[in-house]
Amino acid sequence: MTYRPPESPLKVIRHVQVMPFMQRWPDPSPDDVRELWKAMTAKYNTHVIDKNNSAEMKLVADVLDRLKIVDKEKFLREYVTTVGDGIYTPFTPGIVVGPWDLWQQTMVVGHEHRHVEQDRAKEGLIFELEYATNATKRAFYEMEAYRVNMTLAWYFRREELSPVSLAAMLSDYGCSLADVEMVAKMLKLSLVSIKKGAIPSPACQFEIDWLKARWAA
Amino acid sequence: MWRSLLVAAAGLLLASGCPTTEPCAPNSTRCAATANAAEFCSADGEWLTLMDCDDLGTPGWACCRTADGCTCMPVGAEECNR
What we know:
- Chain A has 10 helices and 6 strands.
- Chain A has helices at residues 9-12, 30-44, 55-66, 72-78, 102-121, 126-133, 135-157, 163-168, 177-194, 202-216, and strands spanning 2-3, 13-16, 47-50, 80-83, 86-89, 159-161.
- The longest helix of chain A has 23 residues, at 135-157.
- With 82 residues, chain B is α+β, with helices and mostly antiparallel strands.
- Helix content of chain B is 20%, strand content 32%.
- In chain B, the strands form 2 sheets. A 3-stranded antiparallel sheet of chain B has the order 1-2-3, with no helix packed on it.
- Chain B starts with a helix and ends in an 8-residue tail after the last strand.
- Chain A binds chain B through residues 136, 139-140, 176, 178-179, 181-182, 185-186, 188-190, 192-193, 196-200, 202, 205, and chain B through 26-27, 29, 38, 40, 42-44, 48, 50-52, 55-58, 61, 66, 68-74, 77, 79.
């Protein structure tokens, strides 16, 4: 339920395929990003919360820091976290800050709304409990959300995000090497389908449709 | 009191006599038997749905075995059944 952009986005981009007749999509503008976040939060009835001014996130950051899982400042500054209907962001959508450029902000809104879908597909707090207590389930949930990033990168930029690099980010999430390998293989298989046109989540489908409609107008 | 204890004990015996599901080989894949979906064996040895081929934004997808394993592909894709 939490995501930060890779240290170097270029490490994650494995390959850019240039197609002669590929439709060219623009880079998202600050206005595009702001409106996209508005549209997705309205569609899913979610809300954006400033992570740096959130008492509960500061508490979570303290706990993670004490457990030596992630540095407190890094967690508050670099990670987006979703809990229930709240999406805690270290940036204001449409305003570039730190590692959060406009494209990362465009991908992460779909990523986090995949977590919202996962949460709503389960009863009560089952999703939160599984995510917090079972590393393999956590890896699987993150895999589905990384797949949103992969789909958007392929659809709009013909960029292949590296399954291995994405999966390696899970070592920050208390996942074992076996879980990381599992996710790398799942993402590799998913990429085969994504490159054929698969859009494997309703949140991702909504985002693609929304951006296409905006950029076609 | 005794009656409920006996019932609970009998239930436990019956439950422990049931065969458990065999764990799958981690990282293996298969096409689901009862749905149009690709499945992946987790690090825990449990089958997970990798992708539901009927829910990919457009119709015309089927689970098939590719060189890398089972996943959803457009019906008739040449990469299938290798």
